[in-house]
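Postdoc handover notes: sequence design on the structure in folder B. Input tokens:
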């Protein structure tokens, strides 16, 4: 279980201190799909980067199954089983997708085995397996490969930052199908359809968590706050 205790993240912005995350405490439950939602700039991506270790909090503590991992590197966290797919994928010129899958799984895979990961995210695997993971792929293709690599790492906690972004015909049924039993998923998303299929929803606003509850309960409240003008 990932637990954040009093996480604050402050940056210097044009000489001023800017509070990006403001004293966040939360326990992400095991074997759950937890969606994180909230307006642009509310701190969702920053929160996920703090969990994976890309950025360090200014103060506060991160626990993983009771172990304090606040000072662990990204690599150490990946080894523990915390995996991440970026909102903006990072491409690697000179490495094929097959090679990257081998790196993610830490072993050489047969072609059919490597293809399985790509098929799971809706890619026609044989067309892609020997291509470089570079900018010649469309944004949506990069995003799918990125998701496949996160799945190939085979951790028990997988974090996706807006997996639907840039994927035009991304099917939510497929997204739900890639979730496996006995694993935990933390997924940043704006899509109501995805949110309603999650177990738990976290709502962020101005660097704070303003709601965290069962998806049904949160969606009821979200309707009141976000759709007022439309309903009037
Ligand atoms: N290093 C930084 N310097 C200045 N502002 C930052 C920095 N990192 C994030 N921010 C700001 O913090 C806010 C939260 O960013 P982010 O976590 O990416 O939001 P979200 O993913 O919810 O859209 C945004 O206003 C963003 O511009
Ligand atoms: Mg973001």
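Designed sequence:
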């Amino acid at each position: 279980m990932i637990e954040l205790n009093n996480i604050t993240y402050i940056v210097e912005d044009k000489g001023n201190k800017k509070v990006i995350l403001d004293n966040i405490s939360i326990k992400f439950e095991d074997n759950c799909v937890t969606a994180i939602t909230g307006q642009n700039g509310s701190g969702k991506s920053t929160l996920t980067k703090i969990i994976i270790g890309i950025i360090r909090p200014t103060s506060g503590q991160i626990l993983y199954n009771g172990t304090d991992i606040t000072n662990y590197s990204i690599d150490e966290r990946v080894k523990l089983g915390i995996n991440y797919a970026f909102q903006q994928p990072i491409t690697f010129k000179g490495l094929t997708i097959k090679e990257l899958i081998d790196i993610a799984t830490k072993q050489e895979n047969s072609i059919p085995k490597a293809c399985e990961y790509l098929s799971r995210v809706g890619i026609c695997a044989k067309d892609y397996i020997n291509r470089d993971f570079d900018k010649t792929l469309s944004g949506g293709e990069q995003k799918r490969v990125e998701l496949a690599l996160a799945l190939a790492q085979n951790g028990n906690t997988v974090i996706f930052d807006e997996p639907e972004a840039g994927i035009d015909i991304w099917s939510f049924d497929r997204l739900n199908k890639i979730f496996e039993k006995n694993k935990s998923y933390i997924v940043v998303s704006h899509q109501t359809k995805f949110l309603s299929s999650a177990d738990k929803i976290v709502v962020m606003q101005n660097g704070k968590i303003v709601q965290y509850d069962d998806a049904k309960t949160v969606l009821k409240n979200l309707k009141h706050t976000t759709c007022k003008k439309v309903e009037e």
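Context for whoever picks this up: The longest strand covers residues 16-28. Don't rerun without checking with the PI first.
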